[in-house]
Amino acid sequence: MSDRKIAAKVSFVLEMIEKIELIVARHKGVVNALEDTEGQLALLMAVSQIGETLNKIDQDTICTLDLEVEQKGAYETRNFIVHDYDGVDLYLIEKVIEHYLPQMKTKLQRYPR
Prior knowledge:
Layout: H1 3-26, H2 30-35, H3 37-55, H4 59-64, H5 68-83, H6 90-108
Helix pairs in contact: 1-3, 1-6, 3-5
């Protein structure tokens, strides 16, 4: 995969994280956003897009950015959202947004764009 394609994917994931941050801020918290139908749908879509996009980045780049765990977790979360296995656990989504996305954002920002 070319550096330009990787940079585009990294930029897209960072954009999704920023949109999640905006939605959360607009609702004055993750829980409030997840309790709102539109907020919930928007957050679930953005989280699933992150998982899908990270899964398309080659393993060498993922290892360089120290994102192996995040890539696997993001893709598994995406699968649960998209396929609705036993319903989506909104508590899990809350924890992903509060704890994992900020760490992922920091790591992704290291990639030259």
